[in-house]
Amino acid sequence: MTSETVRVTSGTGIANRIPAVVPRYLPLLLLALGWEALTRTGLVPTSALPPLDTVARAWYELASSGDLWTNGVASMTRGAAGLGLAIAGGSLIGILMAWYKPVRAAVNPIVQFFYPMPKSALIPVMVLWLGFGDASKVVLIFVGCLLPVTLAAFNGARGTDEVLIWSARSLGASRARVLWEIVLPSALPEMLSGIRTALALSFVLLVSSELIVARQGFGYMIGWLGDGGAYDAMFAVVLTVALLGFAADRLYLMLVRRILAWRE
Amino acid sequence: MSEIETRFLAPPAATGIRLDLTGAVTRRAGAIVPLLAVIVAWEAASRSGIVTPFLLPPISAVLGRVWEDAISGELALNLGQTLFRSLAGFAIAGAGGVALGILMARRRWVRWFFDPIVSVGFPMPKIAFLPIFMLWLGLYDVSKISMAVFNAIFPVITATIAAAEGVDRPLLWSARSLGASERQLLREIILPAALPQILTGLQVALPISMIVMIVTEMMMGGQGLGGAMIAASRFADSPGVFAGIVEIAVAGLCLVKGIALLRGRLLAWHQETQEPTTV
Amino acid sequence: MPDAAHIVIDRVSHEYRPARRRPVLALDDVSLAVGEREFLALLGPSGCGKSTLLYLVGGFLPVEQGAIRVEGRAVDGPGPDRGIVFQHFALFPWKTVMQNVLYGLEKKGLPREERLRVAREFIELVGLAGFEDSYPAQLSGGMKQRAAIARTLAIDPSILLMDEPFGALDAQTRSLMQAELLRIWQRSRKTVIFVTHDVQEAVFLAERIAVMSARPGHIKEIVEARFDRANPELLRSRQFVEMVDHVWNLVRGEAILAERSGAA
Ligand SMILES: Nc1ncnc2c1ncn2[C@@H]1O[C@H](COP(=O)(O)OP(=O)(O)OP(=O)(O)O)[C@@H](O)[C@H]1O
Ligand SMILES: [Mg+2]
Q1: pTM of the shown model
Q2: Is the ipTM above a cut-off of 0.85?
Q3: C221 by DSSP, 3-state: which?
Q4: E strand or H helix at C70, and its extent?
Q5: Of the residues C24, C28, C89, C259, which should be mutated to test ligand 1's pocket, given the most ligand atoms within 8 Å of the CB?
Q6: What residue numbers bound the domain in which A96 lies?
Q7: Residue B95 within any structural domain of the chain
């Protein structure tokens, strides 16, 4: 009887206790070990999957030669510029769409039409227009990320509780003030989630466009390292980009939690 | 999955009073005007020589090109290839993602193993793995579709977990106490209750699958709209590039509207009608 | 005496026309004059249009049929002369209690020191001292309501529109707040329109009580209730109890009607 109760309260046996005991990220470590084991035992040829330690060594070489840094800075600058422009532009357009009927009437059909377009289709156009350099990537990311931000800002602003607007007006706020002080903060939660989508998209567009046409950047590195058969170095850069994307998202979530602290 | 992550995935609740009061009918009719204006402006800009026809070929020329492609069978071939692969990738990602998501929500071991992988994998720019996929799987459908699956599956998994976990506990308990088996529980309680959020995950996954397909086609070449567009841009064939954009834009629009329509059908009982923010 | 009236509501009807649904006639031919410095209670069954009437006086909804004049001028939009406490508080969720109360004071252009002093005074008055830095999400319903009251009282409007302002309070806080409201009213002599469901509260606070019919609302009867509120025995006095009984009977008939039409 007693043992029965104990078992019930502690769940269904060992399986339940494991997650609490084992560190959360152990499965990733297991994956890494599996990777190493596969290559060490020769089950998988090292030409297809270089051992993890050679990847680490290649990463160290790329980092100490400065290649990783210069290309990384080039990529991140492009991404930040494009995304920053998209956030500024998208927020502005979205909120104006919600606030002014004529703007909505004029812009909404265009947004709705172009929103579902797979944004990567713009890559060749950017090459036609702007060539192989920074500008084509920045504009690509800007154009690609603009609509998700716009639509999120629009939906957020349009969901503003009417009574909050009334409240501000009766406390003496002008219409313009209300837009800034009530509609914008009301739209913020949804806007921030749209920006998270845009952040992920910006990485995708950045790496894709650099893979396809570029003379600098992470994607370009991945491309020429792979073409040259330096797979350990290629894996090193791929993992770097992936981890950067992950880190950017985590940092962003931390920032969001800060900004939206009032929702707790 | 952290709480904020799942919150972000949930479709925005349709609370608050909408400021948008125009009727649906007038909106439909009025929607044509701005789009026509864009078309006219495009045509005028390139005809008047403000921009060279190389940078922006007149839309009439672009549509002419689309027509030629349609007649010659190119359009059907390329569009068909692209759609087939992206929909295949989407379907596999959808089925696999829902299955894995449910398993993760219901089985602790599965959850324990996949949780860190999913939460690290979800925000990663997985497109960077493209050359690795090319290395392993070659340049044909298998590798292209795998790439689409790899990219599109994560939002489905996270949405499914959040949805399955969000199912009302007392509902599960009462079904269980009425004698429902695990399988009945799944089919009759969990899946229907989780459906709205799962569909949201699928709505996010579909455009991802298309975006990734276009990129892989551009990288690997061969048939498909991505390959056709990148070839056109190499030959400085700008009507070809723009024709590709028009074709893919219309296809994307149809697919996204189609899945939204499906959602409306499936969720006729469900309150919210707002569409999720996707890429 | 229509000349002395501060607020004149003249044959006002209001119809809501929600998108894709049938229009709702909320108010039907309502006429009412509220004298300068008068305390008027508005009583009526749920859904009879009390909030709607306040929104019209507040200038949040357009007056489409009939006319509303405040100090002889037709109402045209919200203004800080008419402070309103909304039924659902309408606090700005991203602002702390202090920031909420300061909002209207900033719009009035008071100097910083003065703003802080006034805000503290009213936060203390409603018993929220110590919660200045809490966000609305961290407050209970009753606390939110008190914060909303402080925010409105702080800007010292000449007209107070209160929509069930004590609805979310426990009995004890409620009677404290009632006394406080009476004190403020007697000291600053504002014109008050006070919506409530609570007959005893209406009789205790108001000089006149307008009883509204079930939807579509119109004024069914106006009852005078002038008592000496300084009398500590008032609540037990025979006149008071009789008055409560009288008003209660009026309201009850309408509530039954409202229920029937709701069920039909
Ligand atoms: N935005 C709206 N759209 C459509 N109908 C509305 C709207 N607001 C209110 N109504 C309807 O108008 C009628 C009056 O509403 P109102 O909120 O003024 O009632 P009330 O007397 O304040 O009720 P309560 O005592 O429950 O607060 C109700 O029947 C309600 O259903
Ligand atoms: Mg009300």
Answers
A1: 0.86
A2: yes
A3: strand
A4: strand C65-70
A5: C24
A6: 52-263
A7: yes
